[in-house]
Specification:
The chain is an alpha+beta fold and 107 residues long. It contains 4 helices and 3 strands. A 3-stranded antiparallel β-sheet has the order 1-3-2, with no helix packed on it. The longest helix has 10 residues. The radius of gyration is 14 Å and the shape is globular.
Length: 107
Amino acid sequence: MEMRRVCFLLQVRPDRLDEYRERHASVWPEMRAALHESGWHNYSLFCREDGLLVGYLETEDFEAARAAMERTGVNARWQAEMAPFFQDLDGRPDEGMLPLTEVFHLD
């Protein structure tokens, strides 16, 4: 099966941006392992100074990868801790990951 590229946007509260960056400088080892085991590859987060967060990952099946993460206990704990960092978000951050439509890719 071919890998699918997934990109999404979220908005980090600008007043919490430094702490958000600090938290991601030391993501829990069990969270990193769960992402890898659930089929998240080349997962990266990029952030502008105004808090605009761009996420990118590659996976065979994004919905299956999200569902696999949802079945882990570590994901529930991580999402609960990360939720206060975001603005304009109803629910958990991982529920707000709405894939953007890819319009160009240079292979």
